Amino acid sequence: xxxxxxxxxxxxxxxxxxxxxxxxxxxxxxxxxxxxxxxxxxxxxxxxxxxxxxxxxxxxxxxxxxxxxxxxxxxxxxxxxxxxxxxxxxxxxxxxxxxxxxxxxxxxxxxxxxxxxxxxxxxxxxxxxxxxxxxxxxxxxxxxxxxxxxxxxxxxxxxxxxxxxxxxxxxxxxxxxxxxxxxxxxxxxxxxxxxxxxxxxxxxxxxxxxxxxxxxxxxxxxxxxxxxxxxxxxxxxxxxxxxxxxxxxxxxxxxxxxxxxxxxxxxxxxxxxxxxxxxxxxxxxxxxxxxxxxxxxxxxxxxxxxxxxxxxxxxxxxxxxxxxxxxxxxxxxxxxxxxxxxxxxxxx
Length: 348
Ligand code: NAD
Description:
CATH architecture of the largest domain: 3-Layer(aba) Sandwich
CATH topology of the largest domain: Rossmann fold
Strand content: 5-15%
Mean pLDDT: 96
Largest sheet: 6 strands, mixed
Helix content: 40-55%
CATH superfamily of the largest domain: NAD(P)-binding Rossmann-like Domain
Low-confidence stretches: none
Bound molecules: nicotinamide-adenine-dinucleotide
Number of strands: 12
Shape: globular
Radius of gyration: 20 Å
Number of domains: 2
């Protein structure tokens, strides 16, 4: 594992196996410099254990950066469970997972991620105190997607101001990839601001909602990159910005909630050279983890969430301005700020 190219001096990587339930899970704690690590649990049918380890190493490092940019008192951690989220779930499995989280005694807080829903975390929470994203506790924060989407919408406006000279979206066309939990709310905000929407998704029901409610035009999932739009907002998959899709995009802004949008970090420089303002994903989508952090603090307070989101949006503006001033890719500038914040946490 120490030779894995995604290993970044992680503080701990913990492997769990439970014979009775079949649980195979890894919890990676990248850093606790800014506080107990926090990040969701992903359930995925990995091709092999090395893919699983690479994923958890990369995701937990990403959470350190995201949490640092969101100025919440948490380091970065992430959990992965090896299995098919449609066929391999059971109460025993999530109870065993809850015990695994509890064994780390608060160095890692879990919540939902891909393949994991509230019901799964509610089961795990019967075995651990360190689970958030609940619907039933006193401080329950519920679905983080609306807060994530509000941050994405505000981030789109900031990028528009820099790319077009103003943040008025009433005469802008936005191509939205994925209209699920986050993308759906993003469409609603954009439609209210008068933007013209072109959307794609594989889920027909989700598409019907934004078509009717927001007047969105629907295109096929592969057509979304070729739309004559001003802004591209990815809210579905990772790794969608690569050399091929970049050539096809006609937009001046890429800003959406999806995690890990750049196929490799070096794409940031190619995007910059193409004259596109790219809003780093882990900065624009930090609203959700802020909402979860409010729950972890023990007393959910919406004003606290709003104040943290305001601060995150200020940081986002600094990233975009610093990148312009220094002719550097926005993702590299964001990484530097995140690393500096983590290093400062380490010395205090
Ligand atoms: P979701 O599952 O509710 O929505 C994703 C949508 O993408 C679904 O409607 C799905 O049908 C669609 N989709 C799948 N494949 C597609 C394809 N090939 N083309 C177009 N659409 C496709 O998930 P979500 O919670 O909205 O999260 C979306 C993204 O945002 C993910 O990358 C997630 O990691 C990230 N994110 C979410 C939050 C949050 O608060 N939910 C916070 C931070 C980051």
